[in-house]
Design a protein that fits this description.
This protein has 421 residues and is of the alpha+beta class. It folds into two domains: 13-291, no CATH class; 294-402, Lipocalin (Beta Barrel). It contains 13 helices and nine strands. It has helices at residues 13-32, 41-63, 81-104, 112-138, 148-152, 160-170, 172-189, 195-215, 221-237, 239-246, 263-291, 294-297, 405-408, and strands spanning 299-310, 313-314, 323-328, 332-337, 342-350, 355-360, 363-376, 379-385, 391-399. The chain has an eight-stranded antiparallel β-barrel with strand order 1-3-4-5-6-7-8-9. Strand 4 and strand 5 (342-350) form a beta hairpin. Helix 4 packs parallel to helix 11 and helix 8 (195-215) packs antiparallel against helix 9. The protein is elongated and about 85 Å long. 21% of the residues are buried.
C-alpha cells in the first residue's frame, strides 16, 4: 500500500501492540469526550453516560478517601476531577482491551485497513473541532470584545486566563487570523487530497492552543492535549513521507487515498462529507446571528433621560431608581445613582425576547427586568416590565465613548518612538 509509512507486509509485535492500544484510546476518547457535532456519537454517549457516572463515583471513592465525585454541569471547565477520572478510566480500559485483543488476534499480520478507518475517524473528529473553534473566532463568539469591567481592571487583578482572554479580545484582526487558521486546518482534514497540508496546519495551531492553555491556566488542557496528540498521530502515520520531503531531499510517494476510489463510492462519500460540513456551519451561523446583538447591550452608558411612573402618574425622584450611569457587562452590571452611590447587579440577557434582567443575588426586591431596543447606533432604550406596585421605568441611554489608550490607539505604520505604556 503506497504512501502509508505504517503499512508493511508484516507488522512487528510491538507495532501491533501499540496500534491496538492507541486505537482503543482514541475510539474511547472520541465517544466519551465528544464534540457534540459528529452524528451518532451523542446517541452512543447518552447510552453509556450512566455507567460512566457510576464508574467515576466508584473510582473517586477509592482514590479520594471516600469522596464521591459527580459530573458537574455548565462550569465552563473541561479539566474537572470528573474528567480526569474518566481519562484514567479510558487508559485502564484501553490497557485491558489491548491485552484481550492481543491474545485473541495475535496471528493477524497487520491492521492496515483498520489504521485507515481510524485515521478517517480522527480526521473528522479533529477537523470538526477545529472548524467549530475557528468559526467561533470568526463570528466573535469565543472571546467577544473587551468589556468595561476588563478595561478598568488592573493586570494584577486579572487571572492568567483573564489576561489571555483580554489579549485575544483586544484585536479583531488577530481573532480572524486565528479563526482562519483553525477553520482552514479543520476543513483541509476533511478531504483526502488535502490531509497532509491540513495535518501540518492543525499541528501548528493545536500546539499553540496547548501552550496558551498550559501557560495561562485555561481549563481546557485535557481536550487541547487530545487534539494535539491526534494531530501528531496524523503526522506520524505518514512520517516517512514527511522525512523524505522536508529533511532528506528525497522523492515522496503519493499518499494512500483510501478504499473508496470507485466513482459511485466517491460520490456517496463526497455528498455525505458536504452534508456534514453544512450540518456544522449552519448551526454555528444561527448561533452567531442570535448572539451578535448581545455585544451592543454591553458597555458603559450615560442616562440621558428617565421616567418613573406609578399607576400612569409621574412620581417624584427616588434615589434607588434615579440612575445616572449604567455599565453592563457579560454577567453583571453596575449602576451609579444620582447621589453617587453604586448598585451592583447580576445580569442576564434574554435574546429571544430582547430583555435585560438585572438582579441582586437572591433578592427579588432589587430585580429589574427591561425590554431593550436600539433607536440609534449609540442609543439604547430600556423599558421596565414586571416591577412591583405597577411601577414603570423608562431609560434613554447613550453609549459612552471609550477613553482608554488601549481602545483609542489604533494602528500606525509609522512610529518615531515606541508607544509602550
Amino acid at each position: 500500500m503506497k504512501g502509508e509509512s505504517l503499512a508493511t507486509s508484516n507488522w512487528s509485535f510491538l507495532h501491533k501492540l501499540l496500534f491496538r492500544l492507541f486505537f482503543l484510546i482514541y475510539v474511547l476518547i472520541i465517544v466519551i469526550f465528544r464534540n457534540g457535532k459528529l452524528p451518532f456519537i451523542n446517541s452512543i454517549y447518552i447510552i453509556i453516560l450512566k455507567p460512566l457516572q457510576n464508574f467515576v463515583s466508584w473510582m473517586s471513592a477509592i482514590l479520594l478517601n471516600g469522596k464521591v465525585v459527580t459530573q458537574p454541569t455548565n462550569t465552563g471547565s473541561g479539566d474537572t476531577t470528573f474528567n480526569y477520572i474518566l481519562l484514567l478510566g479510558v487508559a485502564l480500559a484501553a490497557v485491558i482491551g489491548t491485552i484481550i485483543w492481543s491474545v485473541l488476534d495475535k496471528k493477524r499480520p497487520d491492521y492496515q485497513k483498520l489504521l485507515y478507518y481510524l485515521s478517517v475517524l480522527i480526521r473528522f473528529y479533529l477537523g470538526f473541532f477545529m472548524l467549530t473553534y475557528g468559526l467561533a473566532k470568526l463570528f466573535n463568539m469565543q472571546f467577544g470584545d473587551l468589556s468595561e469591567y476588563r478595561l478598568k481592571s488592573t493586570y494584577g487583578q486579572s487571572s492568567p486566563m483573564g489576561l489571555a482572554w483580554a489579549f485575544f479580545s483586544y484585536s479583531a484582526g488577530y481573532k480572524y487570523f486565528m479563526g482562519v487558521a483553525e477553520a482552514l486546518g479543520g476543513l483541509l482534514l476533511l478531504f483526502r487530497r488535502t490531509v497532509t497540508l491540513g495535518a501540518i496546519i492543525t499541528l501548528t495551531v493545536t500546539a499553540n492552543i496547548v501552550a496558551v492553555n498550559y501557560f495561562f491556566d485555561v481549563p481546557v488542557k485535557i481536550l487541547s492535549t487530545i487534539l494535539l496528540s491526534m494531530s501528531v498521530f496524523l503526522i506520524l502515520k505518514d512520517a516517512r513521507r514527511y522525512l523524505n520531503f522536508f529533511l532528506l531531499n528525497k522523492a515522496t510517494e503519493p499518499a494512500n487515498l483510501g478504499y473508496f476510489n470507485g466513482k459511485k463510492h466517491s460520490l456517496t462519500v463526497s455528498l455525505l462529507k458536504y452534508a456534514l460540513i453544512i450540518y456544522l456551519v449552519i448551526p454555528e451561523y444561527i448561533n452567531y446571528s442570535a448572539h451578535k446583538n448581545d455585544f451592543k447591550v454591553y458597555g458603559k452608558f450615560q442616562v440621558e433621560s428617565m421616567r418613573q411612573t406609578n399607576l400612569n402618574k409621574l412620581t417624584s425622584n427616588n434615589d434607588s431608581v434615579n440612575w445616572k450611569k449604567i455599565e453592563i457587562n457579560f454577567d453583571s452590571a453596575k449602576v451609579q445613582l444620582a447621589n453617587n452611590k453604586t448598585l451592583i447587579f447580576l445580569a442576564n440577557i434574554d435574546r429571544a425576547n430582547n430583555q435585560l434582567i438585572l438582579f441582586a443575588d437572591g433578592n427579588n426586591a432589587n430585580r429589574y427586568q427591561f425590554t431593550y431596543k436600539y433607536t440609534l447606533p449609540d442609543m439604547l432604550l430600556l423599558s421596565s416590565i414586571n416591577l412591583p406596585d405597577h411601577k414603570m421605568l423608562l431609560f434613554k441611554l447613550r453609549k459612552s465613548s471609550s477613553d482608554y489608550p488601549l481602545t483609542n490607539r489604533g494602528f500606525h505604520w509609522i512610529n518615531e518612538y515606541p508607544y509602550n505604556k
